[in-house]
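Action item from last week, closing it out:
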Amino acid sequence: MATYAIGDVQGCYPELQRLLEKLRFDPAADRLWFCGDLVNRGGQSLETLRLIHSLRDNVIVTLGNHDLSLLAIGQRRQDAQSKVNPELREVLFAEDAPVLFEWMRNQKLMHHDEQLGWTMVHAGLAPIWTLRQALRQAQDVERELSSPRHPRILKNLFGNRPAAWSSRLQGIDRMRASINTLTRMRYCDVHGRIDFESKGIPGTQKPGMYPWFEVPGMRRRETRIVCGHWSTLGRFAGLGIYAIDTGCVWGGKLTAIRLEANDEPAYITVDAEPYRKKVPGGGD
């Protein structure tokens, strides 16, 4: 039995197919972890969702910012939905959209496997969070997304305020701060205030900002963390962090790592399709 974590797919369906073939993925024995951002920009988000949904008994997903954005758009009126890009419209107006959306709403914001000693999140963790606190904040959001109350949180999803999570926050503000941290964070200051603008490699950020995994004084967490979201960072391994968004949608690669309990993970990659334009710096 093998467990593989896969970086941001973003609708890159042919690359995902080739990666699964290269992994020799066996649904009877293997498991897949997806670091989030399953959809948008790759051209075949509907096919990607259908494929991952078909493997759902063997799949764990931590939702990314693009996935949550799609869920939020799904709460809008039909005329507003018609104004989004064609790739997302194809998902929104698909016959099986209600099934896919319900499945997405029941996915995670963070996953921890005690036996493997691995944790997965799309973007990052607040510097003040212990592993237990981070899981608790993620689970609070997950309960809202999977409940009949989900329209409320999805309609109030967007916004850069508050910029940092705090135990004093309540209600929607607390949820939004948790979501921004788990799905949008790259750089933050020592107080956990997120810089939502900086997307470049470490060394290009504003003074006083740190990669979320290098903040001075951050809480210690006894786990290895696999994440995506940061295509300009690319493949990174250090400080217990394994970042695997290697910019497939920007002409890079789609990356998987095999998660073992004690050994260093093995990397498996496939190149992006030749028609994908290389874009320096990538994007969200």
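Closing note: The chain has one domain: 3-271.
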